[in-house]
Amino acid sequence: MNQFDQRNYSIIQRVNTGVQSFLSQVYGWMVAGLLLTAFVAMYSLNSGIFITIATNNVLFFCMIIAELSLVMGLTFLLPKLSAALATGMFMLYSLLTGLTTSVVLAVYTGESIASTFVITAIMFGALSFYGYTTKRSLTGIGNFLFMALIGIVLTSIINIWMQSSAMHWMITYVGVLVIAVLTAYDTQKLKNMGLQINENDKEMMRKYSIMGALSLYLDFINLFLMLLRILDNRR
């Protein structure tokens, strides 16, 4: 190997190390968020807190608004936030999601929740692996996925009043497909982000790893909830 090749190999090796370091933080924080959500949801179900949330519409919607505010804050104010504050906001979001999700989980059996979680983890892992390893650029589908998500949210809101079973299942199956593709897309986007971040800038590395963790966390939670609807093994 000549000197030029050795220099190129060294550069590539440093780049790969930086990406892997960034993604390991992303997945680490994502798992931490999921574990907190699972613990809080379990505690809420066992203690009966979910009943208070489910029977108090004002409390429930205030929690939903708080969750949306945290996501919007992390998304649009990230450059101005400290790494510690961004981390705190993500963990608070994970805690609130555990409380609100417990209201949904209360109607399903423990076996159904556990089996759906395993299926979700396998699907998510496979899709994320594809997004990381594929040579095909997924950048072009970003706008389509965003519009599809907006469509799913709007039709879901409309169906609250329509109560259409057909629309419910259409939203669910389309939602699974969109989130599956979004998982691969987000993973590739985070891989590309890792190429641009200076791994020596610990503050920036932490902030953007939290943002990446939030993206993948949302993919996982939404995929889990939609698969739970499809399997539909209620108490």
From TrEMBL:
- Signal sequence span per UniProt? none
Instruction: Report the coiled-coil segments.
Output: none
What is the membrane topology listed in the Swiss-Prot or TrEMBL record?
Answer: Multi-pass membrane protein
Q: Does the keyword Cytoplasm apply?
A: no
Family matches, as CDD domains: BI-1-like_bacterial
The UniProt entry's GO CC annotations, sorted and at most eight, read:
plasma membrane
Q: Which InterPro entries match?
A: Bax_inhibitor_1-related (IPR006214)
Tell me its family: Belongs to the BI1 family.
Its protein name is: Inner membrane protein YbhL
What high-level taxonomic lineage is stated for the organism? Bacteria, Pseudomonadati, Pseudomonadota, Gammaproteobacteria, Enterobacterales
